[in-house]
């Protein structure tokens, strides 16, 4: 397998300044390039880009879509990052201190099974679901 490369993800937000505060100040992601309608952030070496998107007004609530995983309703879609366990604990504590409401509280998923991992889910101010996870043993990332 070749060297792991950074991923790029563009996602919609309702307000660029609100996204700057959440991703930059709450999550601690350094800001990169930006314009009036978008802003780049460095999410642990990966490029995520918040793009302003006006409300669709179609009455559909994307946050209402969930899939059951390990006894929890996981929001779909979602994105996030796989961290080292110490980094996961630090960001968990940072989110708690910032008063962020979790959609799935931090816990150990698949405990004692293949793929055991620490995970937590929360929403950004625009309602985008994020999952931050960590493995004690990274070889379990794709374990069956």
Structural summary, described in words:
It is a single chain. The chain is an alpha+beta fold. Helices cover 17% and strands 41% of the residues. It folds into 2 domains: 53 residues, 2,3-Dihydroxybiphenyl 1,2-Dioxygenase, domain 1 (Roll), CATH 3.10.180; 79 residues, 2,3-Dihydroxybiphenyl 1,2-Dioxygenase, domain 1. It contains 2 helices and 10 strands; from the N terminus they run βαββββββαβββ. The protein has a 4-stranded mixed β-sheet with strand order 1-4-3-2, covered by helices on one side. Strand 9 and strand 10 form a beta hairpin. The longest helix has 13 residues. The mean pLDDT is 91.
Relevant terms:
single chain; alpha+beta; 2,3-Dihydroxybiphenyl 1,2-Dioxygenase, domain 1; 2 domains; 4-stranded mixed β-sheet; globular
- Order of secondary-structure elements: EHEEEEEEHEEE
Radius of gyration over all CA atoms, rounded: 16 Å
Q: Write the CATH architecture name of the largest domain.
A: Roll
Shape designation: globular
What is the CATH level 1 assignment of the largest domain? Alpha Beta
Neighbour order of strands in the largest sheet: 1-4-3-2
Instruction: Give the number of helices.
Output: 2
Pfam families: Glyoxalase
Domain VOC: 5-135
Protein name: Glyoxalase-like domain protein
